[in-house]
Fold this protein.
Amino acid sequence: MISRAKLFSSRLSGILQLTRGLQGAKYGQPTPWTHKHLLQEDEVNVGIKKTEFQKRREKLADKILELRKKDEKSLVILPSARKKYMIDHIPYFFRQDTDFRYFTGCLQPESILVMEISKSSSRSYLFLQENSSYTEKWEGAKFGLREAVTFFGVNEALPIDAFQDVLYRMQKENRRLDVWYDLMDPRDPEIHKTVLSFISSISQGQHLHNFEGLRRVAHEIRSVKSSCEVDLMRKTCGIGAEAMKKTISKSLSLKTESEYLATIDYESRMLGANHLAYPPVVAAGENANVIHYISATSAVKERDLMLIDSGTEYHGYSSDITRTWPVSGSMTDGQRCIYQIVLDCQEDLIRSVECGQTSIDQLYRSMQMLLGKSLRSLGLISSDFEDSLAARFTHQFCPHNVGHHLGMDVHDCASVSKVQPLVAGNVITIEPGIYIPKHNTSVPEEFRGIGIRIEDDILITNSGCEVLSSNCPKSIDEVQTLIQRKD
């Protein structure tokens, strides 16, 4: 019979071993047990469970099998982003490669996803930098290999130093290989050298059956958001809209573009954003006619319009919102006239969206037609121009497209054709604008120096669309009231 003392001692030993095991585990990013305030049970990234990442890899495997329809095994090679440095040991802010994050959830630099895909099976391998006491002291812990298998749901985790050996093992085990890798757009220069050497070797040995870029397939999959991604898009767009609204409301107390920039950055982060999704355009007056003006160095004048194009990133998902408003709280007649043309155009475009029918290219042509008619009625385009000619002439006033896909990247899934009809789960921006520089003496003086853009984030649904950024006002009366309101 086991004595009570021995039984207690045995249980205590087991508890201590378990505790030591948990303390010894290495995790290179937030987890549900280290960051309970962020992640729920079984989540790898905020709002996304391990099973979702496994389904994404399965979808990638199915898509590749569908495209190839051959007996040869396919090999997917997808590196992460590499840490970059400003100077010496001072790193830039690290942002993970979007496709790599989408298919793994792993936020560590210098990592690689490799997938072996055949008709009978699919296996995923995650190559990671191993921990060392030196790097851990300076940069923090990285995922241990055992923990990575469990946490990310891959078949095997291996040290990144084994990457080359594993590639050549796969070469020996397979007579012919299809390789899927972005040769022309490498994510990691060091890994790229290894992959080039491998491709050269299997080409010479006639083991390479076919070579394909991966990004086009990845973008096709990523462009349609899952239900949990839609929730994250609603969240980030809601944060972006509220931050913009709060910034607009403080206009009477802000005197420089840099103060507006600081305000929208602060409001975004306080509402839960990790950071701004891109360097924002904060442009007062004439500066708004520079489409990608990001200097934010000018003082703001009393009669200026302020154009801010800003977005938030919330745990890997981005918003992209633009509003233009009078810093004084009151528009001039010329400003009001141009603003209403842009607003009417945008609202007409949003109402026109039909799932499975509308494309970004169609929206662009519709924008040109709408702006052309309005500018002709105003006398800024010759009344002699027919509709089609007036539409083409609008390029002088609006030189950019009407929108783009939105998601994990601000300009998301760039390889997806703008001619392709939009489907439920796509998220796009709709952002018409009119820009009239001061030196444009062909228009009446009251319109010179005006730059206006209005941009919202649009989720395509089976019944039409949902405006994810609708919480930020944009009608003239609403905006002016928001600025003039004294709480």
